[in-house]
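Re-run with default settings, no changes from the original entry. Doing this only to confirm the output is reproducible before filing.
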Amino acid sequence: MPKKSAIPHVAWRDGRPRFSPSQLLRGQGHKGRDLRHADGRWFSRGEAVDWSDAFRKQLADERRSARSAATPTGGRASSRAPAQGQPRSSGAARERYYTIAQMCEDWQRSPRWRPGEPKSLAASTMADYRIKLSILERDHPLVWSAPAHLVARPTLRAMFEELWAARGLASARGVVAVLSACFSWAILRGKARRQDNPALKLAMELPDPRVRFGTRPEISALVAAADAVGRPEIGDMVMLAVWTGQRQADRLQLLATQKVNGRRHFRQGKTGAIVAIREAPELEARLARAAARRAAVRAAALLAAPTQEARREAEIRFGHVVLDEAPETRYARQEGRWVPFDRFHYADVYAQVREAAARGVYDDGEIGPAIGIEPVAGENRRWLVAPCPSVADLRDQDLRDTSVTWMALAGVTIPEIISVTGHTPESATRILKHYLAQHPAMADSAIGKMIAWYDGNGETEFGL
């Protein structure tokens, strides 16, 4: 016989929880069932409490809806107090069932979620947060509908592990991080009716660090392949990343007017940090060729503009340092040429160029003349870009870390690095910890400095 439980609507049988509807609820169509997760695991006691509270809120909402539907149109609802045992519609009752779903909705109405407001989240950040919250709502509806003040840390740890198994560690950590930010916001405003953040201190496992930066041959192959396959703007983006250390979104939004006195000025969309970076000769020459490529097209677009407004739009469009220069000549695709990239299309084109660099690009008589590279053995053709298989896993995001690593290998200090890239000292140190620990040049440099100190009769005593 099920053990009598203090949790409403939940009975315990051999230590396992089961939904046990009353006779009234059975008459309304509810049926008893075991309280398990989708993978078959039984609810813990805390999860059973959360489920019970959410179910009671659902019943209360259904009763309120039924009373509202029963009130005659144009009439007035009875002002009598509800009978004993019936849910009240007062603010206190509503607050009792302030769910995580409501908390997340309120959070998204706050000034931080209003584009254009001071200190508001970046549009890409808001989009990412919404994706994470939709995963929470879809994969864990019981947590989503649970009262915010009752959700326990063990419940969220169990949710994290289920997300980890279903969607991977990075995605699971992301969902919990967004939920934690929401809880922090609600707690500070007294909405969650609790002082502790249950999404903190879950002892979440860390993913293995991504240890990847581009070597000089890999970067050269990537830029050469971009030029060889007719997508030189991807080569421009690679050079911008290596010689400025900026994020992809900031490079895509870079305007020609952001160059002042030989420096490229970036206002980073993610952090708001402002950096002014002297343009290296390699980058200056590369971007000068990019401007020359678009000069005639820009002039034609301005001449063809039918109105002053259209002319202003063309000026803004061609003000971007990097534009989509797709060599598509079909009429239906002309509107897609010479426009700023969105991040999804850019990712597709970058992947195509990277694949070309990995496989190599050979002269087929259409791409362009051979550049003096020896023919492939046994074949009557010449490589325009020799294969570089190792570049196949080099992501655009790795290019920013490449910039940090190259600067460190050149002897640049961490304060100097962060003045260029906008990293925090902690994140810059973390990057160098992963990358430079594996680079023999750093070990050689360290031993070389030690030898020089020793040969110079370096002292180990202080005060001499």
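Confidence is low (pLDDT under 50) at residues 73-95, 330-334, 365-378. The chain has 18 helices and eight strands.
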